Amino acid sequence: MIGKHLTQLLLDNGYEVSHLSRTPENMPGVKTYLWNVKKNEIDAACITGVDTIIHLAGSGVAEKRWTDKRKREIVESRTRSIWLIYDLLKKKNHLVKSVISASATGFYGDRDGQILTEYTTPGDDFLAEVCQKWEAAVDEGAELGLRIVKLRTGIVLDKNGGALPQMANPVKWGIGSPLGDGRQWMPWIHWQDVVDLYFYAITNAKLKGVYNMAAPNPVTNKQFTQALVRQLHRPLWAPKVPAFLIKLLFGEMSIAILGSAKASSQKIEDAGFIFKYPELDKALKEIYG
Question: Cα dihedral sign for 189, 58, 141, 18?
């Protein structure tokens, strides 16, 4: 989802873009190189002429129930993929200077209403473990003299994919209601700001280290549901979805729904980035307008 938007923005600004993919693609203006992370296979030509690598690879954390096998897939899809690229950089002459990688606000775990900065300690649940291993793998590029940027992404709002359609469907059906007690904080961000922030990291060589990728005004799950109700002109269904029912349905994966993360955007704003959609109502109006 993000890769397609970002690719188009880069092409529109005169950049040459290549993709690493498990299957052949047919996107105009983009050359696709094949790789298979599980088999440690990668087309060595993929780094020819490349100066920046954007690492967005990773199995979806909410696509399947978290069995032990699925947990390994979630972690290894993020760590082994960047290791495969780094191994190639060690073997072949290249021009790569920067690696800009996704991470997630799941790094912090469930922290109630605590304001979470990039200096906050990590959480102790599975999502926090994933993010720590993901970031540690990406950081190994510093030993190769690369500029490393890690963007801890919140809930990306796009009506065509990600979490928003799943959250909006009950509202559209007239049964929208807060999840759990509704007080958990949601570090949301409009997809356009996500893409712009990646572009900002690409074009600003002084940007290094980790940054939260979340809008300046986080909201609770209850506030988010109310904003969706206003935008979609539907009633708010009074009963809340009990936390025990969510845990029963989703098991350990329920942390992705019930966990609270009030992520601060102050560091990236101090670095000069300006959000197009800092307010949730404005973001939803653009998405559904």
Answer: negative
Determine the Cα–Cα distance for residues 57 and 33; give it in Å rounded to an integer: 14
Residues 6+ apart with CB under 8 A from 60: none
- What's the per-residue H, E or C state across 129-178? HHHHHHHHHHHHHHHHCCEEEEEEECEEEECCECCHHHHHHHHHCCCCCC
Q: What is the dihedral of CA 211, 18, 56, 37, to 10 degrees?
A: -140
DSSP 8-state assignment for residue 235 = P
CA distance 208 to 210: 7
Residues 134, 80: Cα–Cα separation, whole Å: 9
Most confidently predicted of 82-86, 221-225, 234-238:
82-86
Average pLDDT of the chain is 93
The Cα 262–Cα 113 span in angstroms is 6
The pLDDT score that the predictor gives to residue 243 is 80
Q: What is the DSSP letter of 39?
A: T
- Do strands 185-186 and 219-220 pair parallel, antiparallel, or not at all (unpaired)? antiparallel
Helix (H, G, I), strand (E, B) or coil at 203: helix
Torsion of CA 109, 112, 114, 118, to 10 degrees: 20
CA distance 233 to 235: 7
Domains annotated on the chain, with CATH: 2-157+186-217+262-275 (3.40.50.720)
> H/E element holding 70?
helix 68-91
Per the structure block, which two tokens stand in for 133?
């291993």
Q: Are 105 and 154 in contact (CB under 8 A)?
A: yes
Q: Tokens 């942390």 correspond to what residue?
A: 255
What's the pTM?
A: 0.94
